[in-house]
Amino acid sequence: MAKSSKKLTPRLRKLSVYLYIPNIIGYARVLLNCYAFGVCFSNKWLFSVLYFISFVCDAIDGWCARKFNQVSTFGAVLDMVTDRISTASLLAILSQVYRPGLVFVSLLALDIGSHWLQMYSTFLTGKTSHKDVKDSTNWLFKAYYGNRIFMGYCCVACEVLYLILFLIVDTQSESLVDVVGSSLQQGSLLSILVALSLFGWAIKQVVNVIQMKTAADVCVHYDIEKKQKP
Amino acid sequence: MANVKKTAPRLRKLSVYLYIPNIIGYVRVLLNCIAFYLCFSDKRVFSVLYFISFVCDAIDGWCARKFNQVSTFGAVLDMVTDRISTACLLVILSQVYRPGLVFVSLLALDIGSHWLQMYSTFLTGKTNHKDVKDSTNWLFKAYYGNRMFMGYCCVACEVLYLILFLIAGKQSESLVDVVASTVRQGSPLSFLVALSLFGWAIKQTINVIQVTCTSYDGNVSLS
């Protein structure tokens, strides 16, 4: 009697975390992304809509987690991994349809590198989220992470820019510079959107570079502190 | 006096950045940058540089232990360089082969499995994701328990991707066609491809297990 009820409780507790509302939203995000990338070449618009919905869910599941008091480590990890993979896949596809493709390969490298180093430094310093950067000395860093709306704008700008680039790819010209240049010169609503996105994207990439340096310093500092302790 | 106190921490930080294995790490990054810059114009140079970088990956670990210069920064630099170089090679393979989404999926699996493994390593207080003493999965223990076998699977993956890139022909972009015709040739290349495919398959299976099982044990129980 005692044995079986003791066995059930941890398993039920585990199961209940997997069934948290925000985590179920997380599974929906994964499914949306799989389906989106499955149709990305055959139906660009459907792909973009699904990708964008998944991105919106990213914000919703965080809100749900706080509202329903269902914050979980698993949920945060699921979120981060889904983000990284969906951005990586979109950049991979952009590198196929544009020349020079290596631009997007480099952006992929920067995305992986900066987030990986940031995750490491977050753990080493015992913070719970890489967004809690209270003691960083870099001004742009503090401005970026200090203002959640600004940070949100930069993140959204990146995704929107990549989606727009995928949607407007010209069959005549694969040249990235040409396509971006002509879309800006149009003077249309699209031009404004592209310009706005480019600005936020640029800031995010600069922050990514700074993040790598800061996080590397944290790793080094961690070793020095460890050696100093008896 | 105060100056001495100020320079000491900075010097110590600098010295970690100048550790021999970390300098090898920087060389790896440079090799990869040059390699990928040349990858379409000179496939062979790309493959040689990529392979040298991969060999350096083993060397810098050995140097770190030999010169007592093991550092967290070095381990992270190593891991990040690995992840990025594999990711970039997979992206390029997705460009030259059809269906490209096969390599995009492998990229997703690589990122997902390594990311989840890093998280669970930290959350369970281990220092190295290769220390899997209390894992319950048998294939996991077999893989991580035998360093030679693990090394073979990792090398097999990189070799397979490099070979696929080198033999990508202009006649057929179809991945299945190229692999099948190579294996059927009955040449040393066929043998190499078959060996690599086997090791690659095991590594991807391990990756899938990591995504489905490790996160279960490493993360959920702690939330």
TrEMBL record, chain A:
One GO term describing the cellular component: membrane
Name of protein: CDP-diacylglycerol--inositol 3-phosphatidyltransferase
Membrane-protein topology: Multi-pass membrane protein
Domain of life, per lineage: Eukaryota
Keyword hit for Magnesium: yes
Gene Ontology terms describing biological process: phosphatidylinositol biosynthetic process
Entry keyword set: Lipid biosynthesis, Lipid metabolism, Magnesium, Manganese, Membrane, Metal-binding, Phospholipid biosynthesis, Phospholipid metabolism, Transferase, Transmembrane, Transmembrane helix
Cofactor requirements of the protein: Mn(2+); Mg(2+)
Organism from which the protein derives: Citrus sinensis (Sweet orange)
From TrEMBL, chain B:
Protein's UniProt keywords contain Manganese: yes
Family, similarity comment: Belongs to the CDP-alcohol phosphatidyltransferase class-I family.
Catalytic activity: a CDP-1,2-diacyl-sn-glycerol + myo-inositol = a 1,2-diacyl-sn-glycero-3-phospho-(1D-myo-inositol) + CMP + H(+)
Positions of transmembrane segments: 16-38, 149-168
GO biological process, one term: phosphatidylinositol biosynthetic process
Taxonomic placement: Eukaryota, Viridiplantae, Streptophyta, Embryophyta, Tracheophyta
Coarse class of the protein's main subcellular location: membrane
Official protein name in the record: CDP-diacylglycerol--inositol 3-phosphatidyltransferase
Gene Ontology CC: one annotated term: Golgi apparatus
Gene Ontology MF terms in the entry: CDP-diacylglycerol-inositol 3-phosphatidyltransferase activity; metal ion binding
Cofactor(s) in the UniProt record: Mg(2+); Mn(2+)
EC code(s) of this entry: 2.7.8.11
Localization (cell): Membrane
This protein's UniProt keywords: Lipid biosynthesis, Lipid metabolism, Magnesium, Manganese, Membrane, Metal-binding, Phospholipid biosynthesis, Phospholipid metabolism, Transferase, Transmembrane, Transmembrane helix
The species this protein was found in: Citrus sinensis
Membrane topology: Multi-pass membrane protein
InterPro entries reported in the protein's UniProt record: CDP-OH_P_trans, CDP-OH_PTrfase_TM_dom, CDP_ALCOHOL_P_TRANSF_CS, CDP_diag_ino_3_P_euk
